[in-house]
Write a structure and sequence with these properties.
By secondary structure, the protein is mainly α. The protein has one domain. The chain has three helices and two strands. It has a two-stranded parallel ribbon. The longest helix is centred in the first third of the chain and has 14 residues. The chain starts with a strand and ends in a 6-residue tail after the last strand.
Length: 66
């Protein structure tokens, strides 16, 4: 599974902010618009906890040197 490198911890926990950061990071990583939309649609298919779970499936935290 492809992953986007971005911080989830210590950032704005607002659902829209998380999705916006994901969209930018995925676009910068070369994901297609369809790939991004698929992840965001799945993230919005449930409650906030579901959104976080979906994001955690598709995000890896950057290393300390990044």
């Amino acid at each position: 599974m492809r992953k986007v490198t971005m911080r989830l911890v210590g950032e704005d926990g607002n659902a829209f902010a998380i999705m916006g950061r994901f969209r930018r990071a995925a676009r910068d990583a070369g994901w297609s618009a369809d790939e991004i939309s698929d992840v965001l649609e799945e993230a919005m298919a449930g409650d906030y906890d579901h959104l976080l779970a979906v994001m955690m499936e598709h995000v890896e935290e950057p290393g300390e040197d990044e």
